[in-house]
Design goal:
It is built from six helices and seven strands. The chain has 184 residues and is of the alpha/beta class. It has a single domain, classed as Rossmann fold (3-Layer(aba) Sandwich), CATH 3.40.50. It has a seven-stranded mixed beta sheet with strand order 2-3-4-1-5-7-6, with helices on both faces. Helix 1 crosses helix 5 and helix 2 packs across helix 3. The longest helix is centred in the last third of the chain and has 23 residues.
């Protein structure tokens, strides 16, 4: 069983913000694979389906970004998901808009949702796909990530979201290292 977790913040006021890139990728996968992310449990919303003869779970933690780890841990524990079958998708202000980065381990890079997951699992060897949002040194980091991209940034980000969704699909069809080779 494969599990793809998209990080973001619940609520209409956060839709379309830079901090919700993980949710945005899961929205693409939900439509592409016809997996309704509508079940409430594990402090999140999740959906289960079958893709490429593989059982797949899509999870959107509803704990707010900085506390995402408990939702991920609860679901992974319940379904006995192996770490090599788990991928976390989230925003990264250190990458320019339109870029993605795929890594099998590493620090959180200051992304608090990913840091919470690392802290709860007690391990940095967690596969992840980061979607670039860029940054603006003239705007406070919190206000920047909770803000909406400009029209020009949005066009680049939309391409990156599709690329991240394609990488997730490659992960399910093959494995994480094939996705990394093909999409990094």
């Amino acid at each position: 069983m494969k599990c793809i977790v998209g990080l973001g913040n619940p609520g209409k006021e956060y839709e379309g913000t830079r901090h919700n890139m993980g949710f945005d990728v899961l929205d693409i996968l939900e439509k592409r694979w016809n997996i309704a992310i509508s079940k409430k449990d594990f402090k999140g919303l999740y959906g289960k389906g079958r893709v490429f003869d593989e059982d797949v779970i899509l999870l959107k933690p509803q704990t707010y970004m900085n506390l995402s780890g408990s939702s991920v841990f609860d679901l992974v524990s319940y379904f006995h998901i192996d770490m090599e079958d788990l991928v976390i998708v989230y925003d990264d202000i250190d990458l320019p808009p339109g870029k993605i980065r795929i890594r099998e381990k590493g620090s959180s890079g200051g992304q608090k949702g990913m840091q919470n997951i690392i802290d709860i699992f007690g391990d940095e060897e967690i596969q992840r796909i980061r979607v670039g949002t860029g940054q603006n040194p003239l705007i406070d980091r919190i206000n920047y990530v909770l803000g909406k991209p400009t029209k020009e940034e949005r066009e680049l980000i939309d391409v990156a979201l599709q690329k991240a969704a394609d990488a997730c699909e490659c992960f399910v069809k093959f494995n994480f290292m094939v996705a990394k080779r093909n999409f990094s």
